[in-house]
TrEMBL record:
Family annotation (Gene3D superfamilies): DD-peptidase/beta-lactamase superfamily (3.40.710.10), Penicillin-binding protein 2a (Domain 2) (3.90.1310.10), Penicillin-binding protein, N-terminal non-catalytic domain, head sub-domain (1.10.10.1230)
Keyword Membrane: yes
Natural source organism: Weissella cibaria
Any Gene Ontology CC annotation: plasma membrane
GO molecular function terms attached to this record: penicillin binding; peptidoglycan L,D-transpeptidase activity
Compartments where located: Cell membrane
Name of the protein in question: PenA protein
Family the entry assigns: Belongs to the transpeptidase family.
Entry-linked Pfam families: PBP_dimer (PF03717), Transpeptidase (PF00905)
Residue ranges of the TM segments: 21-41
Length: 683
């Protein structure tokens, strides 16, 4: 009996899903076969049909783009005279190709070394060793001496030989001619691909130029070029202000070499290393030219200029070169002997902040040797004495300690508990006690007037024997805030690197007695540039302008046409905030310092200066070389005019304390001769 057929049983059909899988695989395999066929056809085309074309392209020419140095920007004074220019001299350069072996450079260096003599003092021991082992015969001697078993041509082999020569240099001598070639090889090997280095930049002889020029085709990358050095048409003294540059021999400064390399500099590029040259490096450096060098299969080269390059931008300074030199000369001729450590002066336009001259001379009090150092006006600070009194009295006005209507204070010796008695120069024992107004206190340079103003700032009134226990230490900050309105104790913002703020004394309770000294300039220290900004603020009526050396920047196009691109504007950093009456009292007092008929006036040595000047003198007690000395200082201006000055001479003897006025008088005479006509004053 047959079993009944089960309905609905699933049957496997030859046309089912299992039968469709091989079809998909066949399609994919077909596609792969077609792609492989296309790749095979293309490969055959490249290797057979187009082979000759590509071989010709590879062997016929090799090109690279080289960078060529341009002239550094020049620096001019305010009258257009060149202070810093460029002096070009013929040089021998080397531009390293994109791909070159050590053996190829070795051959080129040996060829160049036959015709070019360089200084070998900087030949390093590692490069000496590297050059030595490039010669197979010399390398064999090193192998025999060292006993190395490293396989020739490997890094281990080279390192073993080089290291052995470095340690036993005397056993493997080079002749002077070989050292000359090794030095050339060192310069080539240490350069970067497509960078240009100087094989010899100075004192290249005409014979060397001729010999190298005739054989350039056999010395790939070697050329006769131009090397620019800085030149100073007005004399080297200006270098103490504008700063210096590196040379190709010294290389990039060690403290900034990595940063400069990332900016595209080569190791032997010329860069600013100090002062204006450094601060304005990005402006002065220019943009290198780009030249495409194509070499055909026969070694012939063709140069195509892609970009002519652009010389660095020029700087025009506010400095007047003749006046700068005259001020420097005045300082050097008038600086006292003895323990004097220097003399510094800054002449400024109080309306714009432009510096006409900033000069300085450092003096070794042991040998008497003088060294020009204009930057001491921004990076050296001294206690300056009574020249701070206009700022101190103004601080009293601003904080209500005195007013234009009520500012009479009796000058008397100040005797407080725990502090030596302090007095004015003409009233040591109290026999000269007298009531003084603010302007008269300035004229007579009363120390005790400003000390009593300080006490009032702290909420106290003076009486003999009083204690300073109730005087808040915040009085220091009150005074310093007032001084800072004029630029004392803060950076002036001048466009010169290395500016300091000076040293501020301690303000702890233990030093509360020094608040008396602070009030008349015997505690904190200030730079000469700060004094210049300070007197400019007084002279212009109360706005603090940023001093600046650079007046404008000019660019030069490829046709050497000069265009002014930037003019430095007058920048106001702050205002004093005094009233007209307060300002007029300060102006009156400073005028009386010079022109009062009183025997107590401290600045009468300036009374014959024309046009008439206003001033404040200062004499700070100091100790130099174990001796009692003074810092003789001066701030002065011609009212309603374009000139003000500051002078500081530290370490002088009492007998020379008026040297500040002698120097000031001569500077004014030079200014009206060199910079402006005296008739232009007050216009």
């Amino acid at each position: 009996m047959q079993s009944p057929k089960r309905r609905g049983k699933r049957r496997v059909s030859t046309n089912g899903s299992l039968s469709r899988i091989p079809v998909r695989l066949n399609v994919l395999m077909g596609i792969v076969v077609l792609m492989l066929g296309a790749l095979g056809w293309r490969l055959a085309t490249l290797q057979i049909t187009d082979s000759a074309k590509y071989k010709t392209a590879v062997t016929s020419a090799e090109s690279s783009v080289e960078q060529v140095n341009v002239q550094r920007g020049m620096i001019y004074d305010s009258t257009g005279q060149a202070l810093v220019a460029n002096k070009g001299s013929q040089a021998i350069t080397y531009t390293k190709p994109k791909s070159i072996t050590e053996s190829e450079m070795y051959a080129i260096a040996n060829n160049v070394g036959k015709y070019l003599t360089v200084d070998t003092k900087q030949l390093s021991t590692p490069n000496y060793a590297t050059y030595y082992i490039q010669d197979p015969k010399r390398a064999k001697r090193v192998v025999e001496a060292s006993g190395t078993t490293a396989a020739p041509g490997t890094d281990a082999y080279v390192n073993a030989l080089r290291g052995y020569v470095e340690k036993h240099k005397k056993r493997f001598p080079l002749t002077d001619l070989q050292k000359n070639k090794a030095m050339i090889y060192q310069k080539m090997a240490n350069s970067y691909a497509l960078s240009t280095v100087y094989l010899k930049e100075t004192d290249v002889t005409q014979q060397e130029i001729a010999d190298i020029g005739e054989r350039q085709s056999k010395m790939p990358g070697v050329k006769v070029g131009i090397y620019y050095t800085r030149d100073y048409p007005q004399g080297d003294a200006i270098k103490s202000l504008v700063g210096g540059t590196s040379t190709s021999k010294s290389g990039l400064p060690e403290d900034s070499v990595n940063s400069l390399l990332t900016q595209g500099y080569s190791r032997d590029d010329v860069v600013g290393t100090s002062y204006l040259e450094k601060k304005y490096e990005s402006t002065l450096k220019g943009t290198k030219a780009r030249v495409e060098v194509t070499t055909d299969k026969d070694g012939n080269t063709k140069e195509t200029t892609q970009y002519k390059g652009q010389a660095g931008d020029n700087l025009t300074l506010t400095i007047n070169a003749k006046f700068q030199n005259d001020v420097q000369d005045i300082l050097e001729k008038n600086i006292p002997g003895g323990n004097t450590t220097g003399a510094y002066a800054v002449v400024i336009n109080p309306k714009t902040g432009g510096i006409y001259a900033t000069a300085g001379v450092n003096r070794d009090y042991e040998t008497g040797k003088l060294t020009a150092d204009a930057l001491s006006t921004v990076n050296q600070a001294n206690v300056v004495g009574s020249v701070v009194k206009p700022a101190m009295i103004t601080t009293g006005f601003m904080n209500g300690a005195i007013t234009p209507e009520n500012n009479t204070i009796t000058d008397q010796p100040i005797s407080v508990a725990g502090t030596p008695t302090k007095s004015s120069w003409w009233n040591r024992n109290g026999s000269g006690n007298m009531p003084l107004t603010a302007d008269t206190a300035l004229m007579m340079s009363s120390n005790t007037y400003v000390m009593q103003v300080m006490l009032r700032l702290g909420g106290l009134n003076y009486f003999p024997g009083m204690s300073l226990g109730a005087l808040p230490t915040s009085v220091y900050q009150t005074m310093r805030d007032g001084f800072a309105r004029f630029g004392l104790g803060v950076k002036t913002g001048i466009d010169l690197p290395g500016e300091i703020t000076g040293i501020k004394g301690s303000t702890t309770r233990e030093h509360i007695g020094n608040a008396l000294d602070e009030s008349f300039g015997q505690y904190d220290t200030y730079t000469t540039m700060q004094l210049a900004q300070y007197v400019a603020t007084i002279a212009n009526g109360g706005y603090r302008v940023r001093p600046h050396i650079v007046q404008s920047i000019q660019s030069r196009d490829t046709a050497n046409k000069v265009t002014t691109t930037t003019t430095i504007p007058t920048e106001v950093l702050g205002t004093v905030g005094w009233t007209k009456d307060e300002r007029d009292l300060i102006w009156k007092g400073m005028n009386e310092v010079v022109h009062s008929s009183s025997g107590y006036a401290t600045g009468t040595h300036l009374k014959d200066v024309k046009p008439e000047v206003s001033a404040k003198t200062g004499t700070a007690e100091t100790t130099t070389n174990g001796a009692t000395t003074v810092t003789s200082s001066l701030i002065s201006f011609v009212p309603d005019s374009d000139v003000a000055l500051a002078v500081v001479i530290p370490g002088t003897d009492d007998a020379d304390e008026n040297v500040n006025q002698a120097i000031g008088s001569q500077i004014y005479a030079a200014f009206w001769k060199d910079v402006q006509d005296a008739g232009s004053a007050n216009k």
